[in-house]
Every structure is written in structure tokens, then in C-alpha cells.
Amino acid sequence: MLSKNKRLSTQQFDTAFSAGALIRTPHFAIRHLPSPTKTQWAVVVPKKHIRTAVGRNALRRKIYSAIENLSKEQNTFAGHYIIILSKPFVATPAEIQKELGDTLTRRSS
Q1: pTM of the model
Q2: Which residue among 25, 39, 51, 70 is the one 20 to 30 A from 104 at the CA level?
Q3: Within 13 Å, how many C-alpha atoms sit on residue 74's CB side?
């Protein structure tokens, strides 16, 4: 799980969700907005896609783990509010990390 200072507040989330640019991938819809400070994240797994709280939380933890690993490896997406909206899928943490890393690295360069 990401630490509290790396997660978006409600106000930041609302701003990024309404004004952020949209990137679509096979498994995610990613909204991002340049931030005046550091990079902060939010992960959304809709109840419509995964009905049980256990399933939603498990997927959210996998995505947060991938984000932490990417943050340690690369520092290319500094200064953004990033919201990751999950689509229904089954993937390993390595596949999630690869897709997010490829998408965010390609977008930041």
C-alpha cells in the first residue's frame, strides 16, 4: 500500500478526474494532470466490474504494489496527479507493472 502522502486527497482526485487527460490501455483508463508538487496516485476498481470487496481490494493492492515498484525503478512521472481506473481483467502483478510502466513511460517522454 502506498503511504498517505503519495495518495490523492478528495479535492485533488476531483480536480484530476475532471480536468486530467485520459489514456486508455487494454486494462486501464488513466487520468493524469500535472501537479505543482510531487506525484500522487489513486486507484479505482468499480463495483460494477468486480462485485466483491475482497476481489476489488486484491486488485487494488496488486496495482499499488506495481506502482511502488515502478516508483523505485523509474522517476519519469514526477509531478503528476494520476488516477488509475481498472477495467475487468485477471493479470499477475508483473503484467500490471509492465503495462503501467510502458504506458506512463511512453506518455512522459
Answers
A1: 0.85
A2: 51
A3: 17
